[in-house]
Structure formats: C-alpha cells, structure tokens
Amino acid sequence: MLEALHLKNVGPMPETEMEFAPRLNLLTGDNGLGKSFLLDVAWWALTRRWPHDLNSNLTSGYPARPSDVKKAASIDFKLTSKTKSVFYQSKYVPRDESWLGKAGRPWNPGLVIYAHADGGFSVWDPARNYWKKKGSIDIQERLPGYVFSAKEVWNGLEVDIDGKPTLVCNGLLSDWSAWIREKGETAKRMEEILGNLSAQGEHLRVGPLKRLSINDARDIPSIHTAYSAGVPILHASSGVRRMVGLAYMLLWSWNEHARAAEQLGEKRTSQVVMLFDEIESHLHPLWQRSILKSVLHISESLHAKATVQLIAATHSPLILASAEPLFDANKDAWFDLDLEKGHGEPVVTLRRRDFVRRGDVSNWLTSEAFDLKSARSLEAEAAIEQARALLRRTQPPPTLKEAKAVDAELRKAALSDIDPFWVRWGNFMEELRGLK
C-alpha cells in the first residue's frame, strides 16, 4: 500500500506532503486544485508508469512535469511492498523529460486498480506485470500494465506484444456474455457484485442476452429494470453503465491475477490498492450514498486474504456523509485541497483534516470540504447576506422601508417557506413595524 508522498516543484503546490491511512483515504477540493493529479502521481509511485504513456487513447493520466523547469523537482514516496516498507526518490531530468531514480528491480505493491473519472481503468498486476527472473537476472519483459480507455473496457484491449497486436482483454460485452452462457461461478459472482453496488431498493439483476439489430451478431447482456425485463446494457443509463464497468473491472482484474498466479505457481497478492477519481461520477444521490461502502465491501470480499487500501477523490457531500458510519480515524483519513487568497498570490494548500460527523448532508456543503456560505441557491445566499447585514447594523438604525426592500429580495430569491431564517427575519420585521 501507499504510505506517503512528498512532491517538490511538481503540481499546483511548491511542496506537497501526504501520509496515507491504511484503509480509506478521501480527497476533496475545488476543480483544478490537483485531486486527479495526485491520483495520477499515486499510480505512478505504485507502478512507475504514467497511464497515458501506456495508452494514448486516455484523455488523462499524462506524465507530471515540474512547475518551474529551471528548478529541481522531485517525487519521493514510501510504500509497503511484498516484503517490506520501502522509500524511493525520483528526480526530474529536463534533458530526458523523465523521472529518474534508482535503477534495477522495482518494488511489488500488490494489485493496483485505478478507476478514471471518464470510465477508463488502469490495472497493474504483480503476477502479469512485475519483472521476471531468468536464473539470478531480473528481466523486464512483461507488459508494464493494462490501461483501458472507457471504450476499451467494453470492447476489449489490444496491445502490441513482440510487434504483433494482441488481445489481452476481451472486454465487458464479450466476457460477460460468455459468463452468462456458461452459467458458471463467474456469472454468479458478477451478479453478486452488481447487487452489492446497487442502491437500496434498486437491485441490479441480470436479464437475458439481447441483440441490438439484425445486422449486429453480438450477444449483449441486459439488466432488469422497473420498467422492463431486459434492457440491453448499452441502452442503460450512464450511472448503471458506470457501475457495470466497475463490477467488470474489479472481477476481471482479480480473476486474471488469480489465474496468472496459479499458472506461475505463486501465491496471490496480499495487498490491493484502489484509486478512484470522482467516485460519484454519473450516480444519482441514492447510489452516491452507498457506493463508498459497496466498493470497500466488494474489494474486501474479492480479496478476502488481502489488505485493501482505497484512495478516492470526490466532489460530493453525500460521499462524505456516507462515510460517517464507517470512518475510523485509526485507519482512515480525509485530505482537503484549498485555494487560499491572502495578501499575496493565491496559494493551493493541502491539509489532513479531522473527520467530524455532521449528520445532515447540507452541513457538509458548508464544511471545509466545500466551503459554501450556505446550502442554498446563489440568489438566496446573497439575499440572506443582505438581510443579515441589515440585522447587524446599529448606526444608523435600520428603517422599515429598508427592511421591506430586503424582504422583497428574500421573496424574489425564492427562499423556502420553511427556511429557518424566516423566523428571525419575521421577528425583526415585527419589531420595526412596532416602532413605526
């Protein structure tokens, strides 16, 4: 698992330090402050490969570059390998446009799965991607990793091996159809995972194989919905396709690892690291409330004898609210990125914050995670700020005319009839009328 990152002159901050928790790590912050960047660096630290270098079809995962190429830049990290805790330092070499560190056989971080925000996935398997030995010599002949664009998750991944295009993954449509036809253990496991990923009351169930048209010979898996006994998965909603893609990649990566380990006569990995960018992507709030717990549960059940570490970036207050029942400060952490505007230039900061249970999800919107002044519309927030300014003013004393103008703004902003602010404001208006 990943224990720590220390970056200098890389990314939006001059220097970044993170010490990860062993189980759950949540990452919040505004757009553009570096959440996806930190996940890319975490993947690189674990695998020593940038996702985009392995698959140019990706729209993310590009190699990191120094903020100022004239200054020294470094990426230091600490991780738990197969045998011990290791520290590694890599420095950027401008002439080579690459990050260079200690040569030789790298570490073995276990199985690493990276779910990208756009539906793509990256997988590093210690059985299939780690260096192999010939006698006492380390040889790097295996594929450096499996990186899928969103389309390749569904249709299969083809890579160049020894100058020949080779299909290394059949893809969701082909594999899942085959599992359904075989009616074996893998088909049952896929349906179990989908059930665990489903929102409460919206259990995803597998339907019959379908054809899209008379000219398309593919068998397409389908799912049962509230309105149909079998909707082809390609016609399902973005959120459902996101869950199906996740279920498939979790199952595929573990099955292929188990098969490769057995074929090599090796033990299965004892460590699994999952990186998740925008874990709530495309999901309705019903699904957002359960996705975090579901991913942890599925990962731990698939890898029953392995330790599982999850590092997830999110923009959703529901994700943080859903973490409240399971968050344990001894093995979980919350990191928050902020743009601080002081007297000089704005500065991006990263803090490990105390995780406080806030109850109502709207309280998360006004927390350090999202920094909103209120959980209301912009118009309502502005009108309330105007009203509060009038409430606080003592000199000159507020007039009834001023209060009526602000009252009109509050009503124009469509402030809810049950908003608690009306109680305070109503008392204020009555006092002014009494003074008239």
TrEMBL record:
Q: Which domain of life is it from?
A: Bacteria
Q: Where is the ATPase AAA-type core domain?
A: 24-321
**Entry's Gene Ontology molecular function annotations:** ATP binding; ATP hydrolysis activity
Gene3D superfamilies xrefs = P-loop containing nucleotide triphosphate hydrolases
The record's InterPro entries line, in alphabetical order, gives: ATPase_AAA_core (IPR003959), Bact_Antivir_Def_Nuclease (IPR051396), P-loop_NTPase (IPR027417)
- Name of this chain's protein: ATPase AAA-type core domain-containing protein
Q: Supply the source organism for this entry.
A: Archangium violaceum Cb vi76
Lineage, highest ranks first:
Bacteria, Pseudomonadati, Myxococcota, Myxococcia, Myxococcales
